[in-house]
Amino acid sequence: MTTETETEPNDLRNLIEGARVVLWDFDGPVCRLFAGHSAERVARDLVDWLEGRGLHGLLDEPARESLDPHVVLRAVDRRHPGSDLVAELEERLTQEELKAAASARPTPYADPLVRTWTAVGARLAITTNNSPRVVKEYLTSRGLLPCFAPHLYGRTQELSYLKPHPHCVQRALNAMGAAPSTALMIGDTPSDFLAARAAGVPFLGYARNERKTKVLEEAGAEMIVGSLEPVLKAVREAGQA
């Protein structure tokens, strides 16, 4: 495994130089969406809402105890795929994500990296399990929307297509007319890595702590950085070459 402390600058630069299209996961590499609006609380609120409607039985114990709202959403969708209940639950999650966007914290070096990669000619897209409405609102607030638009591929009503399914990655590639080998995906979870691998897209892991690094390594990710700073440096150097 190649982690930040082991990564050779040339390895990173080679990965970057081959990328004409860069696919970004949103919550993690671009920002910490729930930095000021707890994802754990959102998950509990979704569970409480279901219980208040007498639907406690739709969730198994792992889903009830989950601190991830997407786990709750998927659990209900598995029992009632495409139902009005799932649509209502998904909208509730979207509203919570929109609240979170107002206090989201930019990932260090993400903003200048996005601008620099765009300036040197790469095309960027978002491929996320979050709502594209939330992505648009956050990017607009940072002045970054022109770097990505219209290529924002996020959660739809078809929840079975959430990563690790490669659907959003393939949507981006198809819309941008890009071969998988000419793209690069940046993500911070095993589901990001697995989606990229299924689509044949090279992957760069971003892990802001040792726990994130470990789970990416266990999933099979081979190149991981603990900061976007060396990525920004490599993009700048590649652009000057």
UniProtKB/TrEMBL annotation:
Keywords: Hydrolase. It comes from the Bacteria. InterPro entries: HAD-like_hydrolase_sf, HAD-like_sf, HAD-SF_hydro_IA, HAD_sf. The keyword Phosphoprotein does not apply. The keyword Hydrolase applies. One of its GO terms (molecular function) is hydrolase activity. This is HAD family hydrolase. It comes from Streptomyces erythrogriseus.
